[in-house]
Amino acid sequence: MTVVTRFAPSPTGYLHIGGARTALFNWLYARHHQRHGSGGRFLLRIEDTDRARSTEEAVAAIVDGLAWMGLDWDGEPISQFARAGRHAEAAATLLAEGKAYRCYCSPEELAAMREQARREGRKRLYDGRWRDRSPDETPPGVDPVIRFKAPQTGETVVDDLVQGTVQVANDQLDDMILLRADGTPTYMLAVVVDDHDMGVTRVIRGDDHLTNTFRQLQLYHALGWTPPRFAHIPLIHGPDGARLSKRHGALGVEAYRDAGFLPEAMRNYLLRLGWSHGDDEIISTDQAIDWFDLGGVGRAPARFDMARLTSLNGHYLRQTDDGTLAELVLAELVRRRSGPLPPEAEARVVHGLPGLKERAKTLLELAEKTEFYTNDRPLELTDKAAGLLTPDARDRLGRLRRRLDGTEAWTRDELETAARSFAEQENTKLAKIAQPLRAALTGTDVSPPIFEVMEVLGRSESLGRLDDVLGGR
RNA sequence: GACCCCAUCGUCUAGUCAGGUCUAGGACGUCACCCUUUCAAGGUGAAAACACGGGUUCGAAUCCCGUUGGGGUCACCA
Fold it and tell me: Strands A145-148, A100-103: parallel, antiparallel or unpaired by DSSP?
């Protein structure tokens, strides 16, 4: 049987990190079965029944976020709101079969019940006062809600693929609302009807839905439908152990994209957060599709660790081929200067990128590191760089400059050979030459190997920058 | 508060379901050393954990109970 999973976010914000991981797990599960089983489909449903909180921008943000993450869904995204009629139909069926009833309670009555339940230390809220009342008792002018006539005895069991067998006594659960007074469906009804109609076979979602599952299971039974299998994955927490929230600085995946993270790093990081495959750490998406299973999902919540994401990103950055990386970095540079780079500067960036990429952990950092290649003469020197240019060092640089003038091929190897023999002749260590040279050519005390830098800069720019520092000598 | 879930280095985790091979392995981070023209990358090494208390057992990180701690859910939100 074909495995069908879905990702069902509510468009009230952005695709946050937790949602992205849920989507990833669902996607991986479907793609795994597509490759190794008898088929798999990954569907997208937008839970937009709360009209007041749902926005077009939020839907776009989720779609963009999924696209950036590289998670493609099958078929068209489904709007839950658009299916309200079908939900009402299901409620009507339950009503007709006596499995649901109209409730005319006022907000005040409900508030009182809530208050009393809390006082008595009960989880169960609604006391079911309209459960068995006859229709002629209905108060005039009040629009009723439709409530589910939930079983009051026995227990409901969830055989969860991650959490194991979890059960709750039915007397803990009250009669939930299916249809609001305005006739719109609530989440509980909508998910069940939609998951059923969409043929979903596996519901992989956050832990926070575990206790909802009991009621949803009861609904499946009342409707006479076969429920899907459930897998509730633990939530992601912030570094302090509290549930991940805005104050942890994590907004949506686009924030990570803008911070210079690569989607493959994000996928790898999120995959390993709560899921493991032995000691494997670096896992390609292709391998992940092969290996992913629900048995590897842990049951304890995991904390979000920026340092680890960053480290992984550095790995994937180094792994990215130079052409692709050049495109990404150039795009970032255009963004920051809000204009194109001079051709000469662009050529230097492209040429210098291989030496730069293993020194950066994010795209942003990488873009920053290209600065000394693109800056115009004369370069501004950092304090440390200026400190390296002592009178002695300048004298040596002057002599080196004359030596360099005669260099035939301006390549890193040629330049290094020349510098080494010059150092020998001066009876000094290479560092005494390389560091001042770095200061003069880059304006800083840190850079890729200096002879590589000279090659990238080219003869005239290198000599020009040297002359800027040497002044009138 | 009630109900439910969870508990191995600072963090992510392997090991737990089928107790012995665990003086608990890997990774990130930290520290040291090596490499080296700087910084990275890379290499080597170090410090670092079975929450606590009871059982069961010849033997428990692994099974059971309790305590403590953390988390989730209790809406005409999703």
Answer: antiparallel
